[in-house]
């Protein structure tokens, strides 16, 4: 888990440029020197840090969304998520905002679960995962122009079964749920 | 979980082109029509399907690797993984090959755990996750020119603790371990 710059696995970055840009992300190309001295380059997708929210209703159901995912050409069932924005006071505020904007639900409380890199071989994307408790549909949705989102409440166990059976292929949803279930405090009981 | 093409969330793809290419991946730009009729475009990273292997030794330790991850500029501790190649007879063969190439370990047996999309908002990447049992360092490593990899055995519980504490930020490693631990058959006992 070392990140010491003198780790003998480390690459040296000698230059960096934005090689491609689009509304969703940039592609960065770094000139690098490998540990054996080889000079080459390496491209990766530069993405904004994001929040992922696992929202529970007071009854312990999970608020899930369905939305089109163009990269995989299908409707994805999963958790609300989105990029952290400059106006967000902190990550918790970003999670609260994304939850309300995408689902219309407002949380009693949010807490950080963990922070993960979903695919650090190709992108610097970081997912800050939160659990939101006591969520009720009392807020105002505010979708981006290209977002069409269906919202529903699903039993916790049904979502877990979908992950188990491979019916929920969305990695961030599987990770948030499995992390939550594996490490939840004993005192919380079964529902959340 | 529907993927019916007439789902009212579906986007229509009217054209598609490779907008950028590099040795690791392509960027695809699709022209799309949103459900409300808006015409726009959407870029995503086109990645090869990959296998991720959770390898256990006969003693129940996990074979982990450390390698440099240029996208996040640090050494990553995680599981062997790599793209499926044309010569792989099937996904299990790909998992067996990647395990041996990256770690030098050979598995007694492999079985599929699940298939997940790590970040389907930005990429069509798919991770086919396998568990490998009875792994011993009896094979031949064969690294790509830009791979420098340290291999070590770590106690299962230590890796789980690293995931819990956020010391293992590698999403595919966290997912494979948490999925395995959550849904392993009762008969397997604690070690694997």
Automatic annotation (TrEMBL), chains A, B:
Query: Keyword annotations for this protein?
Result: Hydrolase
Which Pfam family is one of those matched by this entry? NUDIX
Xref: InterPro entries: NUDIX_hydrolase-like_dom_sf, NUDIX_hydrolase_dom
Q: Which PROSITE patterns match?
A: NUDIX
Q: Which GO terms describe its biological process?
A: nucleoside phosphate metabolic process; ribose phosphate metabolic process
Ranges where the Nudix hydrolase domain occurs: 46-181
Cofactor(s) listed in the protein's UniProt record: Mg(2+)
* This protein's record includes keyword Hydrolase: yes
Keyword Heme in the entry? The reply is no
GO MF terms here are: hydrolase activity
Please give the PANTHER family that the UniProt record associates with this protein: NUDIX HYDROLASE DOMAIN-CONTAINING PROTEIN (PTHR11839:SF18), UDP/ADP-SUGAR PYROPHOSPHATASE (PTHR11839)
Q: What is this protein called?
A: NUDIX hydrolase
Taxonomic source organism: Halarchaeum salinum
